[in-house]
UniProtKB/TrEMBL annotation:
InterPro entries: Acyl_CoA_acyltransferase, GNAT_dom. It comes from Pseudocalidococcus azoricus BACA0444. GO terms for molecular function: acyltransferase activity, transferring groups other than amino-acyl groups. PROSITE patterns: GNAT. This is GNAT family N-acetyltransferase. Transmembrane segments: none annotated. It holds the Pfam family Acetyltransf_1. Residues 9-143 form the N-acetyltransferase domain.
Length: 143
């Protein structure tokens, strides 16, 4: 996909050699479940993922086709870089990638901030859709 620039931030697909850097970054900020999902996205060709980069620093990412085909997510922006519009651009560009690849709809699985997605892309809730495919997921053993 074409690289997009906005306010000194580059939005692009990750390189194969960046895989471990991105996974470490996700692990440090989010969950191991997200590490697993991002790994799936990064191992596809083309990667089902976009990253936001500024001066060689990773600011955020968005993936799709990880939990299941046609599902958008996970997505995350570094806590220090939130509120700058990065999440909006990542969402819009990633959904555009999905559209280009033939998807008619992008479903945000296990949505967190529903108001965010409603605001930036007009997403609407799917009634009775949670926990959906996560209903029988493995649980962490008690510590
Ligand atoms: C959700 C997230 C990706 C948004 O990224 P961001 O770069 O801060 O988003 P933007 O700067 O593009 O915000 C766009 C608008 O959405 C609003 N918004 C941002 N995060 C929001 C949230 N969690 N809930 C509701 N609204 C939110 C912003 O206030 C902004 O509104 P404004 O234009 O009126 O000021 C980021 O907060 C994040 O990484 N959160 C933790 C991980 C997460 O929840 N990921 C999504 C899982 S489904």
């Amino acid at each position: 996909m074409e690289t997009h620039h906005s306010q000194g931030i580059i939005y692009r697909q990750p390189l194969g050699s960046e895989t471990h850097l991105i996974l470490d970054w996700v692990k440090a900020r989010f969950s191991l479940g997200w590490v697993s999902e991002v790994e799936i996205a990064l191992h596809q060709r083309p990667p089902r993922c976009l990253i936001a980069v500024q001066s060689g620093k990773l600011l955020g990412f968005a993936c799709y086709d990880t939990a299941a085909l046609g599902l958008f997510g996970p997505m995350g922006v570094d806590a220090d870089s939130r509120g700058l519009g990065i999440g909006t651009i990542l969402t819009q560009l990633t959904l555009e990638m999905m559209r280009t690849q033939g998807y008619a709809y992008g479903v945000i699985g296990w949505v967190g901030p529903a108001e965010f997605y409603q605001q930036v892309v007009g997403a609407i809730p799917i009634p009775d859709s949670f926990p959906g495919l996560w209903a029988n997921r493995l649980q962490l053993p008690p510590a």
